[in-house]
Amino acid sequence: MRKEEKRKEKGTAGPLIIWKRIAVFLLIFGLAITGVPGRQNLIAEVQAEEGEPQNLYAQSAVLMDADSGRILFSKNGQTERANASTTKIMTCILALEYGSMDDVMTVSDHAASQPKVHLGVASGQTFYLRDLLYSLMLESHNDSAVIIAENIGKSVEGFADMMNAKARELGCSHTYFITPNGLDAADDNGIHHTTAEDLGRIMKYCIMDSPRKDMFLEITRTANYQFTDCSGKNSYSCTNHNAFLQMMDGALSGKTGFTADAGYCYVGALRRDDRTFIVALLACGWPNNKSYKWADAKALMNYGLENYEYRSLWQDIDPGSIKVKNGINKEKPFDMETEISLTVMGEDKDWKMLLKDNEQAEVTWDKEESLEAPVTKGQKVGEVKYSLNGEILRTYDISTSSGIREKTFEWYLKTIFSMYFIGAD
Fold first, then answer.
1. Domains of the chain, CATH where assigned
2. How far apart are CA 178 and CA 159, in angstroms?
3. Is 88 annotated in the active site?
4. Which residues line the annotated binding site for substrate?
5. Of the listed 60, 74, 75, 88, which one is catalytic?
6. What is the pTM of this model?
7. 231 catalytic, yes or no?
8. Rounded CA separation 87/259 (Å)
9. Which SUPFAM superfamilies match (predicted)?
10. What are residue 172's phi and psi, to 5 degrees?
């Protein structure tokens, strides 16, 4: 394919952003390795000029556009860390997808032995899955997670296999689950862990893409819930510990977590107007810094709300036509070349994405120089690529709008015969 690369750019914001970030990186790197007095203040000033959140408590943090899955801000977003009870969002969504809310689940000795925070069940008790899911997500009960895992996955190990398979399906290549509750654990393959970016992807699936997303949201937004075991003899009460639901207008869902290895963790979502943001925080302080995660979550959500708006990305492209060698042209039957028009397939004039004011998608396209007949209608001859800051967002095929038959020896004979014999007086 000979590349005839053409571009339609609205300004030069994209390349400028790339060069600006390179300059910022070089400046920060230079300041970091030199003895410039007050270099930390200078670094902070550079970050402030970029407009990105500063001085976050979390060692890993991500802000994601929940619609596209695009990472809008990342601090050590791909660093693998223990993630505590934020694990339970995966446990919950798998239980919703593979179980029925009225399924009866029996408590094993192993489930009953789980440490606090726990529901406090006894071996042999039975519960409905519906009730265990509220226990899991509102109070973060560790025993409820194991009951669910053992009844749906046949064992904790079997359920962990399901969790890891789903993580791979979602593109979470730096995640490894061992337990359904997120308690610190290790085996021959490593420790129980994820990354802030992967955790954001899992939350995106739970609230945007899963066929059970509505029930996930209903459970995680419930303030209080009461239930009994299947016998009706024992009563339980749950209160939602996701304080972020009352902190910002539009707070949608979330899950807290804490272990000695993980520190305080949080993953949450907010929807305001037509924008939905996800925040994932790992290692966001240790006792007595329980409130750090709320400060970071608000800072990142406000950054998203203040800086990102939906803007149209679609640009009309006229790919023109393409020469076809040895193709039949009834008007000029003996010309060696003819042309057919091209079209961009699957146009999406309503395509929008959350962008900053100074962000602009770049559109490039290339196509074949010529084709040999025969050519079929809809035959791919090139591509249109949309990219943002060097990352390809979408590609669209450039295809032929009609087909054309090949000139064969038989065609020449018939054409000549028709022209000089049948058409003669």
1. 60-307 (3.40.710.10), 314-422 (2.60.410)
2. 9
3. yes
4. 255
5. 88
6. 0.82
7. no
8. 12
9. beta-lactamase/transpeptidase-like, Penicillin-binding protein associated domain
10. -90, 85
